[in-house]
Design goal:
- It is a single chain.
- With 209 residues, this protein is an alpha+beta fold.
- The protein has helices spanning 8-15, 32-35, 53-68, 72-83, 89-98, 101-107, 114-122, 159-164, 200-207, and strands at residues 126-128, 131-132, 145-148, 174-177, 182-185.
- Helix 4 packs across helix 5, helix 5 (89-98) crosses helix 9 and helix 6 (101-107) packs across helix 7 (114-122).
- It is elongated and about 50 Å long.
């Protein structure tokens, strides 16, 4: 499968927003977006000009897609699925993206970033209702319990989580039992549960052209 192998900080700079792809670094003064406010590349400064309506819609779509780490074909499928659901299409699409297993692992604090959480899933460290699930795009449902593989619980990276709890705010649609390194999906995610700065209506307009 195709995947981006370059610097993820360049992606944040290109979109002009924090996508939280490098864990704790994104919350520090070392964040590339904090240090440099222009797009990457030799002509980054020159790119800072007024965008067309299409360009604004495209950038919003790219920002969302890169934040969740999905390919264009996958992202389009989420949009198509959202249009067939009841409710607001943009909110439906964000709800589907939030329910991805790799995102849930990140939201629970098991991974410092979505890329790291995706790696935990694909390497077989995650259990859903006691069953191994190594598909990052797996959509969780209310009532399901997410845990770590028994042997994985002893890894050093989970020690602080087990002893001190999550360092990030856990969204209200999830419940975390830090001591037992397990989480539960309490409800479906709502729009106000998503902390990314996104204007999803622009994404809908992009695909509706």
């Amino acid at each position: 499968m195709a995947r981006y192998t370059g610097s993820v900080c360049r992606l944040c700079r290109r979109e002009g927003a924090k996508l939280f792809l490098k864990g704790d670094r994104c919350y520090s003064d070392k964040c590339a977006v904090t240090k440099r406010h222009t797009p990457p590349g030799q002509h980054g400064q020159a790119r800072a000009r007024k965008q067309s309506e299409y360009g604004t819609q495209l950038r919003e779509k790219q920002k969302c897609r890169r934040a969740y780490g999905v390919l264009e074909s996958q992202f389009r499928k989420y949009y198509t699925a959202a249009t067939n659901m009841r409710g607001v299409t943009g909110e439906n699409m964000l709800s589907l993206l939030e329910r991805r297993l790799d995102n849930v692992v990140y939201r629970l604090g098991f991974g410092e970033s979505r890329p790291q959480a995706r790696q935990l899933v694909t390497h077989g460290h995650i259990r859903v209702d006691g069953q191994k699930v190594d598909i990052a795009s797996y959509l969780v449902k209310p009532g399901q319990v997410i845990t770590l593989k028994e042997r994985s619980r002893e890894l050093e990276q989970f020690k602080a989580l087990r002893e001190q709890g999550a360092s990030r705010v856990i969204p209200k649609w999830l419940e975390l039992d830090a001591a037992n390194l397990s989480g539960r999906v309490a409800a479906l995610p709502q729009r106000d549960d998503i902390d990314l700065t996104l204007e999803e209506h622009l994404i809908v307009e992009f695909y509706s052209r």
